[in-house]
Please model this.
Amino acid sequence: MKPFVFTLRQEPAQRVDLSALSPDRIAGRAAAEIEKIEIGTTKAAIKVGDVFGVSVGDPGVVRFEGGSSRFDLVGAKLLPDHSVHVDGDVGAQLGRLAKGGRITVTGSAGAYAASGNAGALIEIGGNVGDFLAAPLAGELGGMSGGRVIVRGNAGARAGDRLRRGVIVIEGDAGEDLGSRLIAGSIVVLGAAKGRIGYLNRRGTIVLANARDLGPTYIDCGAHILTFAGLFARSLRTDSPRAAAVLSRKLRRYGGDTAVYGKGEILTPA
Amino acid sequence: MSKATLDGKPITLEDACREAARILGDATFPVVAGLGADAAGARSAILLAEQLRGAYDHLASKEILADLDVLRSFSMFTTTPNEARVRADALLFVGPGLSQLWPAMLERLAPGQPPRHGAQAGQQRRIFWIGPEANEAANIPATIIPAARDELPEMLAMLRARVGGRPVAGDAARQPAIDELAGVLKNAHFGVVVWSASSGIDPLAIEMLQAMVADLNVTTRCTGVPIGARSGAAGVTQTSGWMTGFPPRTGFGRGYPEHDPWRFEAKRLVDSGEADAALWISAYSGEAPPWSKGDVPLITLAPAGKEPGRGLYIEVGQPGVTHDCVEFAQEIGSFALRKATTPSSAPSVAQIIDAIATKLQGEVSC
Model:
């Protein structure tokens, strides 16, 4: 069956909340009905039809032809076996609280991408803003499952309070990568700025480029880690370069000793 | 008598309020920014933002949210300065410039005097200061642990590790002083840490500090005294809390309050073009807006002598200086009435905003 397609007519003058276009909200409804869904975030009314042309298809496979950095909450609460594809950029909170499924964005994503993700595979072709996979203000835990692949660079605080799941950043990471990690894994292939793994409890950060890690990471020596080999195999399809880094002998730094020291940072030995 | 100007040309206060109502009423998503005001001014400004279905942000939100993020996503032990004064037998100051951010700090905390209450009463108070400015700690009997501003986060990480008896790597020269401080805090009956987000320490470093305080509370007592941010920040945050349930960086675009520190940051809203008019309030200091976009329709409420070169300007008085005000008082950790020190007829922020809001009635559909 052909996908459900939203074709960009014109970029909206305000941020729009696209969580309203979840499969359960669009399934079984006619194009004219969907075009009337309100997606504005200010007192000026804006409807789906003002921004998109709608072509009805399988609600399990949604495509956006054309994106905008004002498209918030794309793929929010996505369910397993559903997919969302965006040809272009998206705004904040991509894949927020997604339960599963697959989200691909060819352009860049804004702040809080993959926030609260619990199982979706999210792939971002360009760069991503600050707080990748992080909790929103006042929430206690970050991403709790799934996998995020960023082909470009990530902003500050990527992976903040990550609880479970995998984040691969093929470009550079901004300030405070892996802050407050609870668990889970982050792989960075480019450079990482500023503090790394500050307040890390028991998460794993893999850096392709070794660098100074501050006084609360203790050198535990170079090892051939069996688990790293298995992890590398699981990453081979999504990021062959990340898999290559993990297949090598790795130097392990235990920390953040300010917390318990049960987390780790791995760099090529 | 208040002064008002439109692009530098004098107009009457009546016309200025009507013009302000027109600018804000015509906007789709205006932002009430700056918010440097007393409790009454903040209350009027937030009500106006709600009436306009716009957003509001405070000029020191970054510092407000640095403390608040730790409070709401981790936990925070705090006490009043007076409690610290009478009970603390160990006092730790963190970061530079604290005595400038709160000029009465040393007078209020009286670090040189012994504590008066508890088993520690009458004992010598131990005082440490990590990374003070030069000479800042000269008049108190403090052990100084030198640190540059950007070294504070790792110093706090080392300290927390040593309080927990865990190893640290790197610079062996710094460790004896950190170990001594960790020992003092662990053996104290009532430790108190003093810090300010305005001194340049970020939310993660504050979380590290507060996590150490939480660790210490397993075996003894330890708490904190935060020094609040400028331009009435603490009072505006409390006012915002009781009015909407959220701190600043809250929007009413959909008719109900939504809080998002990223989305409703005034600078981002103006520079991205999402906000199409701005009301800038800075009654304490007349600080200029942070955004770079020069053509947003702008209304400025600031004290005399702080008139911007552009847009509509209405002169307001300074809270606690030209008129009596209620604001959050650092020294007692609560709201207090401040009598005007040099009373004048300049109107308060609340009076001007209420006048603008009256002109709006009937123009905005709520």
About this structure: Chain A has two domains: 1-64, 66-268. The CA atoms of residues 12 and 216 of chain A lie 47 Å apart. Chain A has a mean pLDDT of 96.
